[in-house]
Amino acid sequence: MNSREVKQIFNRFDGMNILIIGDVMLDSYMWGRVERISPEAPIPIVSVAERENRPGGAANVALNVQALGANPLLFSVTGNDAENELFLQLMDTNGLDTSGILPDVQRKTTVKTRIISSNQQLLRVDEELSEKIGKSTERKLLEMIRVRILSEKIDAIIFEDYDKGVITPSIINEVTGMAGEKAIPVAADPKKRNFSHYKNLDLFTPNLKELSEGLRIDIDRTDLESIEFVARKLQEGSRIRYLLVTLSEKGIYLRHDEKGTLVPTEVRHVADVSGAGDTVIAVATACLAAGCGPHHMAMVANLAGGQVCGKVGVAPVNKNQLFEETIALFTGSRSFNGDCHGE
User: Fold this and answer.
1) For each of the chain's 343 residues, which pLDDT tens digit applies?
2) Domain contains 339
């Protein structure tokens, strides 16, 4: 692509409606300094100086979609608890629509707390309930999604699956069926539990660990022939149009039109890999909906994932920076820097 074509693609992001279904959570941070080791056990003592909360999981995908200029329509289930109140406040603060968030007294809001010192994560504590949502809640969520799909122009749909129970096989089947009837492209960032239920997709973005766990097979990241064999079987068996496998510092493996290719990368400074997968699927889906070709889609998503890895904590992409880096890459004025995509 030349500069004019890149600008056209980025301009098309503006005003898109991208519907996101998945597990949301609070990303909570405790920032401090380590100055001594505990006398009680051989562990560091962190003197906490600051606390921060951010919308995470599928909500971070929504933030990335919003950062590109598109309109995220987020659907999820949370607990009916104090953590949900805080989550909804953060959604409001960030200008995200909360009408698709369904509180459930049988659930608890997922909280991931990261303890960080000198920009290094020392510990993560997860508070969550990962059982599947109940049938009644599933029906309510599906009806909310159906109304939105039928009443608005939807440019793409993303399943952001963290295995916390919001996405079920019925939701996958119902939503992909509705999308097929209205010719809406569907993308999914999978985890192990629902892996085999994702079929007839336009875009599938597992990392290598997720691919290995989902197919229950060991895969050597250095063996491209093995990756190609597994990718071909998955793509053909699940009828996936574009398969995009993130390979950490190796780059992105893209398979489409019965052929695979490695989109390589030079690793830039990595501060934190948290949320890189959220950014990759948000950017790749927006590029797909904007008419970007598969190879260029993978390259832009690769750049975006690398950009957010340079930030501490989960953070959305910077559109202006991504635009400038994309122009520089496609016009040959810089080498391809980008991917980290933590496993």
Assistant:
1) 888 999 999 999 998 999 999 999 999 999 999 999 999 999 999 999 999 999 999 999 999 999 999 999 999 999 999 999 999 999 999 999 999 999 999 999 999 999 999 888 899 999 999 999 999 999 999 999 999 999 999 999 999 999 999 999 999 999 999 999 999 999 999 999 999 999 999 999 998 889 988 888 888 877 888 899 899 999 989 999 999 998 877 788 999 988 898 887 655 555 545 668 899 999 999 999 999 999 999 999 999 988 877 666 677 899 999 999 999 988 876 544 444 444 4
2) no
State pTM to two decimals.
0.92
The amino acid occupying position 134 is G
* φ/ψ (deg, to 5) at 232: -65, -45
Counting the structural domains of the chain, the total is: 1
Domain annotation covers residue 341: no
Which of 270, 274, 286 lies closest to 322 in space, CA to CA?
286
Q: Is residue 340 part of a domain?
A: no
Burial of 264 (C-beta count, 10 Å sphere; 0-12/13-18/19+): middle
Would you say residue 106 lies in a domain? yes
Q: Which domain holds residue 28?
A: 3-330
293: domain CATH number is 3.40.1190.20
Catalytic positions are 278
